[in-house]
Input
Amino acid sequence: MSQAERAPAGSSNRMTIAATRGSRAASRAVEYLARRLSGLIGLVIVWQLATSLLEIPPYLLPQPIMLVQGLVENWAKLFPALRTLLIEALGGFILGNTTGIVLAFLVNRSPTLKGAFLPIALAIRSIPIVAITPVITLILGFGYATTVTVAGLICFFPTFVNVSRGLQSAHPQALQFFRLLDSSEWNTFWKLRLPSALPFLFAALRVTAPASIIGAMVAEFIASDAGLGFFILLSYSSYRFDLMWQAIILTTACSVAVFTLVAWLERVLISWHHAEQTR
Output
């Protein structure tokens, strides 16, 4: 058989393999979403039945159907507050995680810096975020600067600790092998230490993604006149408990969504780690 005759067959085989891989990836994505959503759907069903059968007052715990209807009707009021909250949370997420990653790299390279900085980080972490927010407000004032900083503080410590541990988690035999090959520090970091740290980094990101939303909301309670946190306070003070519950549920849905997104990205970007765990 000539090369011209074999080429279409080879191309067809490659297309078949690509299509098979694509279908497998799609089925895994559907299975992953089904596992994530099954518990949530069950909770909503129990919630609806409990509020209906027990006749719980709507201001204490509204029915899910009422909440969905209210979200649709009041979306024009809720969306600007949601947009503000997500902008603040995203800014804090980027600020806190970037700072945590950079400082973890620096501390990993210098034991002296680690001994000097780690007690400071632990001291900052031990202060309740509600207690430190007024201090940050006095320094930075009302608005985005304070809310982003508070969200960044919440994100910083988990990422700093996890990445520090991850950079030190490379197998000793692998490190010895790289030394035998006379590998440079940068090459060892890029090909060994960084891949070893990625599972630890994503474990931190799963925590900090929803935590950034909570941190921004806490800051809005004290240092902002916008966002869903301020919207909840305003609704509560004006006895609009329906709007208050809608804002709470919207915040919860966003937190679950960003957690699921980070978990999915982890499975896609470091699939080799999950393959090793299932062996």
The mean pLDDT is 82. DSSP finds eleven helices and no strands in the chain. Residues 3-53 form the longest helix (51 residues). The radius of gyration is 24 Å.
